[in-house]
């Protein structure tokens, strides 16, 4: 029975993926030329606006109806508090997905006096994907009319308004922002949909012009741009790509099956949409774990970030992910990266580790496995796996190391060069080794730069042998072995 339910869920989402892959930008809905400039036709609105409550975050028990002023009082709308407008995406079942009440609940926990409005466009969202994608124009128009009505009829300040759109809902939020008479405060795009929008004009998708501040999380940008489930290009003032944006930790098949075994089939749909939906859960994490904000760093490419070269906070080069993001509006899109855990709380601690390899004999090795252990004032994190794409004699290499543990101030580290496998015959006959004088470390979260020296003056790092130890240098080292590569 469990297997049958799993196969059924997979079948539905295979249909989803097939629809995405065959989607074309040619299918468009026709938006009637009317209403927004002149007297509004509230009768034409098909989207519904449910004001959910902290007590019942999963039920639509009261609707705000544009043109019907009494619904605001009946639903106990708070005119002096923030309002969050949540817009869902495409749906297989025609029903709300499980993340909706989770996000509503988290918003109320962080902002108890706020209004959380869920936009119901389920009837349009369960169509063939290209049709639903085209409907984002009409949904965006509905939301814009609703917002203009709130501002004009009740003098509600749009500085208090925050739109959160997931997948197709992110583009509907962008269109809404482009149509309101007064620019709204903020739009958060949660992995905006890719098919039909990767190459679309800015007016038909989410863009930086749609609000005073637009921040975007990209969590599932795999494949060619026109087939990627999440949009790959930056479409906000700040675009954050957790774990590179392509695939999220904990979203593999084995992990999904483990969760099913532990929790049953209630969340079986996570098997195929885990990375896409991770954008929502990262935002929820930022609401619930106020004391553990995840820090993202500006970088030109994810490859440069993986080398640890972008852990700078100078001139707004780092920012909080999610609710407490600093609203920085640069002249161009700002791409940012970070690592996360596989589950809440998602926060990790980033370090740049920079090593100069000395040797009398020229040796070059590729894809070498190392283990790094960090020992701090508060805790320790042992045997962090690290692969260096290349190491060579008399060269300096920089890499990103991250840990889930807050070790406090770093006091000591060890470095071990692992054997690749027991079947690597060359390792049996040749003993590869390098000399290391010191290791330079930069902590991303604290911005502290530290230098660690070998306790023996020079450490001999030998492949397959024990780890070598580095402690904080007592004297100021010279800079002949390596320069500062911490800038992006």
Automatic annotation (TrEMBL):
Record: residues binding Ca(2+): 205, 210
CDD domains: Pancreat_lipase_like, PLAT_LPL
Cellular-component GO terms for this entry: catalytic complex; chylomicron; plasma membrane; very-low-density lipoprotein particle
PROSITE patterns, A to Z: PLAT
Its membrane topology: Peripheral membrane protein
Active site (catalytic residues): 167 (nucleophile), 191 (charge relay system), 276 (charge relay system)
EC number from the UniProt entry: 3.1.1.34
Gene Ontology MF: a single term: protein homodimerization activity
EC category name: hydrolase
SMART domains listed in its UniProt record: LH2
Record's catalysed reaction(s): a triacylglycerol + H2O = a diacylglycerol + a fatty acid + H(+)
Changes after translation: Tyrosine nitration after lipopolysaccharide (LPS) challenge down-regulates the lipase activity.
Subunit structure: Homodimer. Interacts with APOC2; the interaction activates LPL activity in the presence of lipids.
Homology family: Belongs to the AB hydrolase superfamily. Lipase family.
Function of the protein: Key enzyme in triglyceride metabolism. Catalyzes the hydrolysis of triglycerides from circulating chylomicrons and very low density lipoproteins (VLDL), and thereby plays an important role in lipid clearance from the blood stream, lipid utilization and storage. Mediates margination of triglyceride-rich lipoprotein particles in capillaries. Recruited to its site of action on the luminal surface of vascular endothelium by binding to GPIHBP1 and cell surface heparan sulfate proteoglycans.
Protein name per its UniProtKB record: Lipoprotein lipase
Lineage of the organism: Eukaryota, Metazoa, Chordata, Craniata, Vertebrata
């Amino acid at each position: 029975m469990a297997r049958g339910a799993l196969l059924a869920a997979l079948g539905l989402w295979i249909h989803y993926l097939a629809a995405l892959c065959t989607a074309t930008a040619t299918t468009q809905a026709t938006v009637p030329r009317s209403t927004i400039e002149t007297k509004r036709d509230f009768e034409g609105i098909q989207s519904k606006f449910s004001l959910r409550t902290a007590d019942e975050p999963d039920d639509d028990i009261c609707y705000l109806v544009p043109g019907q002023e009494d619904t605001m009082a009946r639903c106990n709308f708070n005119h002096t508090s923030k309002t969050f407008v949540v817009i869902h995406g495409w749906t297989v079942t025609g029903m709300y997905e499980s993340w909706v009440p989770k996000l509503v609940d988290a918003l109320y926990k962080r902002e108890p006096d706020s209004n959380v409005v869920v936009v119901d466009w389920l009837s349009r969202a369960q169509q063939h994907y290209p049709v639903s994608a085209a409907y984002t124009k009409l949904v965006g128009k509905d939301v814009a009319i609703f917002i203009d009505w709130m501002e004009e009829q009740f003098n509600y300040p749009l500085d208090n308004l925050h739109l959160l759109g997931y997948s197709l809902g992110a583009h509907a939020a962008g269109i809404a922002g482009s149509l309101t008479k007064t620019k709204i405060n903020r739009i958060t795009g949660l992995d905006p949909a890719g098919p039909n929008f990767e190459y679309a004009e800015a007016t038909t998708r989410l863009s930086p012009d749609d609000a005073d501040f637009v921040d975007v999380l990209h969590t599932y940008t795999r494949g060619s741009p026109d087939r990627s489930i999440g949009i790959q290009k930056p479409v906000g003032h700040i675009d954050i790509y957790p774990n590179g944006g392509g695939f999220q930790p904990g979203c593999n098949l084995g992990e999904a099956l483990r969760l099913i075994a532990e929790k049953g089939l209630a969340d079986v749909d996570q098997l195929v949409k885990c990375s896409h939906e991770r954008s929502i859960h990262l935002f929820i994490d930022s609401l619930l774990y106020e004391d553990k904000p995840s820090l993202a760093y500006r970088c030109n490419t994810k490859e440069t970030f993986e080398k640890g070269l972008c852990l700078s906070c100078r001139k707004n080069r780092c920012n909080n992910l999610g609710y407490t993001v600093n609203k920085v509006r640069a002249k161009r899109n700002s791409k940012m990266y970070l690592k996360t855990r596989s589950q809440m709380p998602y926060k990790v601690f980033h370090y740049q580790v920079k090593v100069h390899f000395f040797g009398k004999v020229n040796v070059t090795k590729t894809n070498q496995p190392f283990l790094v252990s960090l020992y701090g004032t508060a805790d320790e994190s042992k045997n962090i796996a690290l692969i260096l794409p290349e190491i060579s004699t008399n060269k300096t290499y920089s890499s990103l190391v991250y840990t889930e543990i807050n070790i406090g101030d770093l006091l000591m580290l060890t470095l071990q060069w692992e054997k690749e496998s027991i079947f690597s015959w060359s390792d049996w006959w040749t003993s590869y080794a390098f000399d290391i004088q010191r290791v330079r470390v930069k902590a991303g979260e604290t911005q502290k730069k530290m230098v660690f020296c070998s306790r023996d003056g020079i450490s001999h790092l030998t492949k397959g042998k024990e780890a070598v130890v580095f402690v904080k240098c007592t004297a100021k080292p010279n800079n002949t072995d390596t320069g500062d590569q911490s800038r992006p």
